[in-house]
Amino acid sequence: MPLRLEIKRKLSQRSERVKSVDLHPTEPWILASLYSGTVCVWDYQTQVMVKSFEVTELPVRSAKFIARKQWVVTGADDMFIRVYNYNTMDKVKVYEAHTDYIRCVSVHPTLPYILSSSDDMLIKLWDWEKSWYCTQIFEGHSHYVMQVTFNPKDTNTFASVSLDRTVKIWNLGSPDPNFTLDAHLKGVNCVEYFTGGDKPYLITGSDDHTAKVWDYQTKACVQTLEGHTHNVSAACFHPDLPIILTGSEDGTVRIWHSTTYRLENTLNYGLERVWSVAYMKGSRRIAIGYDEGLIMVKIGREEPIASLDNSGKIIWAKHNEIQTVNIKSVGADYEVSDGERLPLAVKELGTFDLYPQSMRHNPHGRFVVVCGDGEYIIYTALAWRNRSFGSALEIVWSTDGEYAARESTSKIKIFNKSFQEKKSIRPTFSAERIFGGTLLAMCSNDFICFYDWAECRLIQRIDVNVKNLYWADSGDLVAIASDSSFYILKYNRDVVSAHLDSGKTVDEEGVDDSFELLYEVSERVRTGLWVGDCFIYNNSSWRLNYCVG
Question: Who's near 195: CB < 8 A, 6+ residues apart?
């Protein structure tokens, strides 16, 4: 099942050829180093260039932020490393570092170190607290050293890749590599460590048109990613999303699932060859550097997947870790002022094998269903024990604790409270979404059909494009939100019960007078909630409104 990650373009800038990109950890900045010798900083919120450094006449192949010093460090084809203060725009340091083009500069996460790699086949370590002294030289590659990167899980080690087709793993303090992998059939351009979970993985991209995932403990190739039609110039694991990004001179960025290795998506913005991809921990923004400019995209959603039960317990997914917190644990004597964070103790519940895309308590709060990658698992909410599982794009609960699983647009299964399947339905239309509550609702793009949970008989079809559906706790009122307005309807359950109990057949129009329209409000509902018979909602400008009968 696909990850269904939304991808939105957030910035698009034409420029000279971009050889490297980097994201600032706290400012909304992209650092781009250009083949023309300039380095510039773009603000991706205002979409303007905020700083520009004329570095040299020759290509600047690598530039990085050193945010803790407010510096930018650059490596160029004139063999010099230059360091600038990006606030004052002063040069902090300029020195000749190598005897050939500098391909990469890499900054140690905590120590005052910079690694540089060059076409002179050397890697050098520089200590800026020892007035930029070269404290170590790493020899061993027999061709241009294209990239070096520190291991974030063990910052005493780093990896390097070269056109000699190898990956080498080194220790700071030792002149010889720990080991060498004969990685590819042609030169290797890029290397990145896996930063997410515990897996000792790294990824390489090569001129043989493939990217490979390696286990650096067993030294085995875990997976080969095939599909690019030209040299792979950039490859990385996203730190938060379960994806691998690869960029190539074929002009595309491919997005792969980091556990199944299935190709999820291919981005092609028509800016010619891809040279660099940058990401940032805690953000969904990806920067991509091309021959003809710069693109920033946002992948997936920023807000976490969470569910709140009636007693004030929240369960949420942080990637695939499940955490819980009880809002009621804030004592009654604690003064809460508006807009402040609550002092809550977060507890780890467990992990989820898939990448969660939705999560929902059942009405009594005893169970939680988590959906992801086309599968679902129902857990006990307290002990996080697996009670049931199956395949589904989404799961919805009835008010009594039964549930429906939408397996595809043409198949929906209904289960009883003890997780036994009791009915399987194939609707005559394409079911794009389902909603639970008092009735089971299935939506196409143009209408919604309500069914009773017991026998799945059609109660009512309403011609409206439904974005969301909200039932009041009483089960007598329902709000239907479309793109630009919402409707509040009264559900006449007595009329429906009488009709169904009389044994009359239900035709394609459903039961007469099952619903009556009480209000129509021409406002967009972003999120909504019933409190008694008052409907509270956020409108399109994020104002909190309420609607009382």
Answer: 152, 153, 237, 239, 281
Shared-domain flag, residues 400 and 415? yes
**Whole domain around residue 499: which residue ranges?**
441-549
**Buried/exposed 438-449: b ≥16 CB within 10 Å, e otherwise:** bbbbbbbeeebb
Return the bridge partners of 123, or none: 117, 138
Mean pLDDT along residues 420-427: 92
Residue 169 to residues 136, 166, 202, Cα–Cα distance (Å): 15, 10, 11
Chain-wide mean pLDDT for the chain? 92
Determine the average pLDDT of the residues in 522-542: 92
Taking the whole predicted model, whether its pTM rises above 0.70 is answered as yes
Per-residue tokens: 70: 């407010």
Query: Are residues 324 and 409 both part of a single domain?
Result: yes
Q: Is the pLDDT of residue 505 over 90?
A: no
Site of tokens 């570095």: 55
Residue 27: inside a domain: yes
CATH number at residue 198: 2.130.10.10
Supply the pLDDT for residue 1. 53
State how far the Cα of 313 lies from the Cα of 376, in Å rounded to an integer.
Answer: 21
DSSP string, 65-93: EEGGGTEEEEEETTSEEEEEETTT--EEE
Q: Which of 110-119, 212-221, 315-324, 368-377 has the lowest mean pLDDT?
A: 315-324
End-to-end CA distance of the chain: 43
User: Does pLDDT of 144 surpass 90?
Assistant: yes
Residue 403 has pLDDT above 80, yes or no: yes
260 with 325, same domain?
A: no
Token pair 């379960």 is found at: 242
- Token digits of residue 428: 């005559």
Helix then strand count (H, E) for the chain reads 1, 51
CB of 483 closer than 8 Å to CB of 465: yes
The token pair that represents 201 in the structure block: 């993985």
Domains of the chain: total: 3
- Beta-carbon contacts of residue 152 (< 8 Å; ≥ 6 apart): 109, 193, 195
Clarify whether residues 271 and 391 are in a common domain. no
Q: What angle do CA 139, 68, 36 make, to 5 degrees?
A: 65
